[in-house]
Protein 1
Amino acid sequence: MIVFLEKVRVKTIFSVVDPVRVEPLELCYLKSVLNNMNIESHIIDDMFGFEPPKGLPDIIVLTGYNTAENAIISKSKIYKNKFPDVKIIVGGVHIQENAEYFRVSTIDYVFHSGSLNTFKQLIENIISDNCIPLSRGVDTFKGGDWHIGDKESIYENESIKPDRDFFNKAKSQFKYLNKRNVALIKGSIGCPYNCAFCYCKLLNNRHFIKADYEAMIEEMESIDSDYYWIVDDVLFSSRNDALKFMDIIEKRKSDFKIIGYLRADFICRERDLLKRLRDAGLREVIVGFEATVNDELKAYEKTTNAIDYPLAISLLKENNIDLTALFMVQPDYSVKDFKILNKFIKDNKLDCYTISIMTPIKGTKLYEEMKDSLIDKRAEKYDFLHLVLKPKLPKLIFYALFYSLHIKLLKSVRRLK
């Protein structure tokens, strides 16, 4: 039994600069499951030069971001033509909420569960040639018909650590801006917040599972890396979470350099913890500011206050913690709106930030509400860098103003490093 695990990627405008390059963590988890089953598997990712090995695969698993939807389906057709008897599974975060778009004849299983144990059951079913499809978490194509599995939720972490062989072979290629040898760490499932634009809150049928900080830190200690990027949607949502995390690190005398996501309200509210967090290893914070005026934040259901944003920025600077600020611009922005955002970036001396175009993601309530207004439904255009809703300004002017906001980044010391 041989399994190919492939990350299907679609290039964006910023692929030339390529400021962030990280391991395909979801496939590393699947490889760990297959290792425990004594099944030979190979991760394929052309970004890092991991090509398919020689030999006939029995199973191919394809995954990718939302922009790779069409590319995944195209890849399944290529593989089916090349290996007619292979079983093709597609899965990943995008597919969890959009399974129906992948029910095509060149795909055998649409895996829409977040459970690694269910993935194991699926592999066992394929090996045993069980004619009874799984009832939960998987849609199965058999006899020319699709058998739809119910949605599945998990309620606790499954204690399966990702295989780090891929990381160890390619870690010199992994980076977050000027930070190198970056390992991805995942602890929680879903998100405790309800921002209207965000996809993460929908995962696992909206059942949020907190990270097990003890297990997380043990895993980090087992990885030889310069930086550890904890990709949970929010590193801490309460003071107690932060205290517990720091207590464990201090007791174990762990030495880390950590990148993580925090909200601006947490930074302001728990400002007295920032120095201790820095001492515990927090080196970079990614903050979703989204907008600089409260009317926009209210529409996003963000529940933060733009008035607090300059304070959050200054507090991170005072404690020597790097910041990546995340913003979105609305398609209906006027020239004045672009100027307001540009002024905020200049006034707060931000040298590292990202700006996205507000994009309704397939599978969300926002997408359904705006579906009839979409001017482009091609998956590859949903990279937050293209207009998929009609802008208020002429397109050319909108894009000129949008990309002019990025000019300061070209002079960023961190980007140049």
Protein 2
Amino acid sequence: MQTSIDPVDGPELERRARLLAAAAVTLGAYSEVFDGLGAIFAEHGHQLYLVGGSVRDAVLGRLGSDLDFTTDAAPDDVQKLLAGWVDNQWDTGIDFGTVSAVRGDFEIEITTFRADQYDRVSRNPQVTYGQTLAEDLVRRDFTVNAMAVRIASDGSQEFVDPMNGLDDLLAGILDTPGKPEDSFNDDPLRMLRAARFVAQLGFDVHPRVRAAIVEMADQLGRITAERIRAELDKLILGEHALDGVNAMCETGLAQYVLPEVPEMKLEIDEHHQHKDVYWHSLTVLKQAIDLEDGDPDLVLRLAALLHDIGKPDTKRNEPGGAVSFHHHEVVGAKMVRKRMRALKYSKQMVEDVSKLVFLHLRFHGYGKGEWTDSAVRRYAHDAGDLLPRLHKLVRADCTTRNKRRAAALQATYDDLERRIANIQAAEDLARVRPDLDGNAIMELLGISPGREVGLAWSFLKELRLDRGPLPREEAERELLAWWQAR
């Protein structure tokens, strides 16, 4: 891959050369796309560049199957050029100059050079097509996303970097191509995107960019809840999620996204083991991530981050200088529901995260295994499908620095998990139902469908949780005794 960047001497030149060589190898796996598109666009006199996050990820060795291109061809012309070469294409983004398509395993987006203007009231640009690549790159969010690779007619590639994005990538810095204030006035969501890239890439924010975010954080109020939630999700799912959350809080952005999180900085946890509940919660988030056994788990991560947000509202100073947060899990669950609804999360996401927050303290009543089988059943039953996540959350919530205490807590939870597994194997806890169904209840009690059947069903379910499966005769005796007592 050829380059069109200024020469650099010494070790930096070596490192740059290694990265570009590795990127060339990465891009070599995409020759089918580059050869085909390069020939089609060149034949009709148009330029074509791989651009943005695709180039950044190629340099970092993490390029996937989503490929972003930019071109001087108008959107209508792009559609015509792609016809017959791609498997499918659609125009949902054509108002913004973007044509999307699929060829094989690759998802392709091709956007006409842009030189947009913003009204700086909403975040919607007045779409204007540019004439040059430089015009397009200078309007991008960060320099590491303003690199391009020219695709020639034979599919060969030339690296183009007028904004010196490779220098910032080498330094692990997020900087804007122009003044950050201008960039964020154009689109305030870029400020939250900076924290997201901290979480995804592990980069630092340039001091001038950080200063602009601190000054302009309130401009996030111009952005819809849905767009904020989308960026927040990407941040929470990032490899360096803890750093992303901390960047969001330190710059003031969290006040407009998850204000309950920085508010935890004001509280000291009851064990005096952390600076404050805020750092405890970030530690729990990190430990929950470490316990994931597959893809990043958004529900678990949100629950870990938010599990203690009820503490500021429940703080009590106790005799002897102690601090308590009684029922903070109940208050916290309500706060989680309110915040997640405001961010337009799905009903299922809201219920799952809030339930985990509500249940995260239940284990601490287990003591040294004093729970009856009934209590163990209820623990598993109340968690339902969330039980594996609850296991991880409870274990992650152990942040004591006392190694003996930490080991004892983990061993105790090992014991609870074994008891749950044994009962599940014997009783199929995932499908706990009364020993008599509705028809049997109505026949035994001589009643018709209605409220009484529901009450009887609930009584039998509670009995089932308390005592496990019962023989039919015993269940009938208990139901009759309950009915007569009413």
Protein 3
Amino acid sequence: MLGIPGPPTPPYTITGKLERAPGLWKFVQSKWRVGESDLTGEVTIDERQKPEFLTARLVSQKLVFEDLAPLVGAAPTRKTNVSAKQAQTQQQLEASGDLFPNVPLNIEKLRAMNMDVTLDAKKVIAPPWLPVQAMDFRVVILNGVATVKPLTMSVFGGGTIQGELIMDARTDTPKVRANLRAGEIELKNFFRESRYFDATQGKIQGHLALAGTGRSLAQVMGTANGHVALALGGGSISSLMVSLGGLQIFDALVLYVTGDNRIPIKCAMGRLNFQNGTVTFDRTLLDTQKSVLYVQGHASLQSQAVKAEVDARRKGFDLLDLHGTVRIEGKLRNPQVGLGRVFPLPTPVIGTAKDVACADLTQQLLAAP
């Protein structure tokens, strides 16, 4: 109605006071309800500048992460407040097994108006696999280039994710760049509302530096270059995650399980290198009491498929060596896990693997460009 470029949203209601002065619109005392999220604040549109300039200072007492899903073409998983187009997108993703939606983004809106918008979300309601509890950011759009900086997300347990996002939409094929760092994030919070929560412990550090091009999230990830690095200095994971693959896989990985279904972890780390949408596992390992697990392989973000192997190297004496690897293949959304060729040898095996120098390797992994 006012010609303001904005993102697609779930159903919304807005109340407030609209003020008009020569060349200036002000929307004050505003209250917004977007999907299940709320916003309050002040919006100003200055028509005297060319292009027009929008300034907004917004606060949310409750921000439901799924209400941001339309920004990347995704659909909320909830059953209410979902448009027919969003529901169709979700059905297509589930049917194809794809991880990223290929819904074109309306980038032309970024060129229509310059903006300076801040949002302080006091409470974030996120999916169980994303342990964000609050966030604040500033979005500045100048001549088709959108910069989200600073971006800060507070995580359950005291951890944070900080960094910046940039989208250059001056051309028809936008360029997207992200640089984020994560620190002191409790691993178990990624498994909220699951049976793995109680047996999972440890704190994660990480760094994400990715750049890609495209008009949809699937296209951007399918052309991405850069890396994602993660490290866990110690803790435990639930043995139930591994047991889903069957007893043979459990034996092949040579894992020690405590009485409360924990697998003690001395160290874990991994680096995913992205090159034109192809992801390669680099220095990806899990150091446990009885063995060191090494992951090798690759994934394609164009076909959204993965093919990887996990090889266990024993640290000590064992009566049986399965001489096999665990294979992970299929769509990223739902891969299959199974054993490669296995040759049981009924002879004692003396393992030679050593503990990983966790602190030094973690420093190298997260410091690398």
